[in-house]
Amino acid sequence: MAPESDSTVFQLSACRELLDSHPESLRIREQVEALEEAMPDRPGVVVSFCRTIIETTCKTILTDRGVSVDSAWKAPKLVSETKKYLNLGVVDDGQLDSSLRNGVQSVVQGLDQIVGGVMEIRNAHGSAAHGTDAYAPLLESHYAEILARATDVVVGLLFKTHLRSAHHDPLSRFRYGDHSDFDEYIDSDYGPFEVLDVPLIASEALYRTDFQAYRAALVLFRQEQEATNGAGAENGEPEP
What we know:
Layout: H1 13-21, H2 26-38, H3 43-64, H4 75-83, H5 98-125, H6 141-165, H7 180-189, E1 193-195, E2 198-200, H8 202-209, H9 211-234
Antiparallel strand pairs: 1-2
Helix pairs in contact: 1-6, 2-3, 3-4, 3-5, 3-6, 4-5, 5-6, 8-9
């Protein structure tokens, strides 16, 4: 008889949601899959990858925003630097909701405690941490799961907030398709083109051949959107 499929496979839901949205992010995919596969039999591997995934997430966000990352920064410092660029409390119209900002900041402060706990347990029980006696007892798997779930929360909060705020503040590095409304705006005025019977999409061609020109036009497009929305709001008109 064929073995029954395992319906209890461990997965990091927030990390998986991000991987589905960005399938080209191979480095963090490798880390997430390694952590998931290590549960529950290799808890030391799990807690080691918890720190690695947090650090990779923060470095990705900072690089997206054109921030130079010091190679000596560890997880607590990386999280601290990353939080500076999340535009907490900004709502869909680009305005700042002070009460929302204060509340979200209180939530985000808890990330520091989570990261501190991940670092402490990783240093004591991680497979990739400091060497230890080969016969030392393994960390119990339920503690590894607690850290993995906490890591998933950290990644989800940081990366989702990062991507959402990028709609109003185009990143120094982003992927083609992240600003589909802008792409449609370009493509409605230019193209389609054909070169050697190969169809070319104007927005993608600009993105691939001159990213800085694409980004400069995108920034102007966003500024004009905000100006139009602001004028409409002053006149009592609904936003598009």
